[in-house]
Write a structure and sequence with these properties.
Two copies of one chain form a homodimer. By secondary structure, chain A is an alpha/beta fold. Helices cover 49% and strands 16% of the residues of chain A. Chain A has two domains: 166 residues, Rossmann fold (3-Layer(aba) Sandwich); 184 residues, Dehydroquinate synthase-like, alpha domain. Chain A is built from 14 helices and eleven strands. In chain A, helix 4 packs across helix 5, helix 11 runs antiparallel to helix 12 and helix 11 crosses helix 14. The first copy, chain A, starts with a strand and ends with a helix.
């Protein structure tokens, strides 16, 4: 078992982690246990979970519809009501079993139910394993604006069992891969190179990348839990990526992208801008773009799309005083913060992406 | 100026506190300032506030409908949307100018907007001055269940100016007085005696009681911020009081009570139960009941009402594992925690209240 121990939010990985969870449950002695799933994880992951964890009392299973469009306040209200009706009290426990939507939403629901009950994250998607379930950020979308409502509060612990990935459709695996590539970009060229060789069929290497990414994320958030500085690097590619994701989600005539697919585009754009404004080497930009496009679909944006996406940027949580600030790189693992970028530079980045 | 200084949640009282607020605003340098009012405080309190605080940029005023029935998630959603539309970012500040509904709801809205922006409480009702605005508890109701959704997070500071009380209808003043009496019950016979002499026309004594209550509440929550022990005494009378308040709010054919009016009844019931189960002296019970009934209306409850109120108790946040636990007193300032009380004892308490 690999593990990172902290006061709250300890992360346990693979062998031995289920036994550890059983111990934690025994010590915590919750009055009731609720397991939050979505329609997918209820079908594909619940059985494995129940097989691995002994419960004195059968836990209550709560189920939401799968998909980002259900990560809303109204889903939260339905869950708060269900928890109330089923007799949840302050000593109840919520276990979030699912991908990023389940851990983000479940974390918020638990953190604000009766001013906070304990919760545990069991990520079942690659994206949730390497990113969403770690670090205590939780929240829901407000209309098309992503993660506008939420708090920062760590789970009691995080249990990662990479065998859950076998239940995942390929495009969902690839979506999580975007965050591993991001860790390469913000951390080091060596981790980027390791990430470039990602192959889901190679379990040993995939496990190494999952744990590598957990360690990188943990290092960053331990240094800067409240995002005053270095934690902002975890948003690399997300400023434009979120705007792209929101825009496509809002327009039902356009095909929505998975979170990682949108972030992949955002990272190409941010790396282009880094090369223009921050001396990121052009040759490495080439490699980054090639590597990303090898795994992620290329999307066509019209001028109208691009203008609308730029307009959405002002709602980004990382904007400040009406100005949109980007994290940029000068090389793998070397960043500068709070770069103000003009709209024309953003348009040139879309142009570069289109013509690549 | 009287003041209690802490990292967060510092409280400033009367003379000099507006000047202190101006300094705090200058140091904080928020990107935008929003002032949350309700329809009453916008009319009666906003002008005094704006006269006392210089702003470089005119703050945006947000207004909600007055009254407990608007302390909901849907009001929160409307405010989150308005904040987004008006360009609030993470460095924006929300100033809550109002009674307990405004400070409870505004604190929750700020704490969960973009994972937490700064907020300042400026209580304008007696209840908010001595109780709601202090201690970092915030939240909204879920259906008829009071404060089910919320978090604990302190405001940047609390500014109390007791001249706001001159704008308050008498029954609203009396509602806040219930919490001052509660502080007497849980703190000491001497503070109870001082509280018994409350007279809103005597400004000097009223100010002394406001500050006395702020100090008592501050002492309790400093010792036990997360309500593992002594903080539970602040719920004295609230277990039944909340259930009574919720029940009457739910039944539109019955006259709703103000929070303090419901808590006043809850305190008589809890003190009767204390005398039955916890040796609270009968002679002092007599005094407590007389004192409370001198200021608060007596309400008639049918057997059906009482049964429904008892049923609501299981949703109380302080219940644990399906059992309702009361804080009881053995004397002024001496409490015991987690007393499990039978329904028949609760019925006898209502009987005592009815026949007094």
């Amino acid at each position: 078992m690999k593990k990172i121990i902290k006061d709250r939010g300890a992360v346990y990985f693979n062998e031995g982690s289920w036994a550890t969870l059983s111990n934690i449950l025994e010590n915590l002695c919750p009055s009731k246990v609720f397991v939050l799933t979505d329609t997918n994880t209820k079908t594909h992951c619940l059985e494995l979970f129940l097989k691995n964890v002994p419960f004195n009392i059968v836990p209550e299973v709560l189920t939401i519809s799968a998909g980002e469009r259900h990560k809303t306040i109204s889903t939260s209200v339905a869950l708060w009501s269900e928890l109330s009706e089923k007799g949840a009290d302050r000593r109840s426990l919520l276990i979030n079993l699912g991908g990023g939507v389940v851990t983000d939403l479940g974390g918020f629901v638990a953190s604000s139910f009766k001013r906070g009950i304990e919760f545990i994250n069991i990520p079942t998607s690659l994206l949730a394993m390497v990113d969403a379930s770690i670090g205590g950020k939780n929240g829901v979308d407000l209309g098309i604006l992503k993660n506008q409502i939420g708090v920062i509060r760590n789970p009691k612990c995080v249990i990662i069992d990479s065998t859950f990935l076998e239940t995942l459709p390929e495009e969902q695996v690839i979506s999580g891969y975007a965050e591993i590539l991001k860790h390469g970009l913000i951390h080091s060229e060596s981790y980027w190179n390791a990430a470039s060789r990602f192959d889901i069929k190679n379990k040993v290497e995939t496990d190494a990348l999952i744990w590598g990414s957990v360690e990188i994320k943990n290092e960053v958030i331990t240094e800067d839990p409240n995002e005053h500085g270095r934690r902002k690097t975890l948003n690399y590619g997300h400023t434009l990526g979120h705007a792209i994701e929101s825009y496509l989600l809002e327009h039902s005539n356009k095909e929505a992208l998975l979170h990682g697919e949108a972030i992949a585009i955002g990272m190409i754009l941010a790396t282009y801008i880094s090369s223009e404004e921050n001396a990121f080497p052009k040759s490495k930009l080439e490699i980054v773009t090639q590597t990303i496009l090898r795994s992620f679909p290329k999307v066509t944006f019209s001028d109208i799309d691009i203008a609308a996406i730029i307009k959405l940027l002002i709602y980004d949580k990382k904007n400040d005083n009406g100005k949109v600030h980007f994290v940029l790189l000068s090389d793998f693992g070397s960043h500068t913060m709070n770069n103000e970028i003009s709209n024309s530079t953003i348009k040139k980045a879309f142009e570069y992406y289109k013509n690549f």
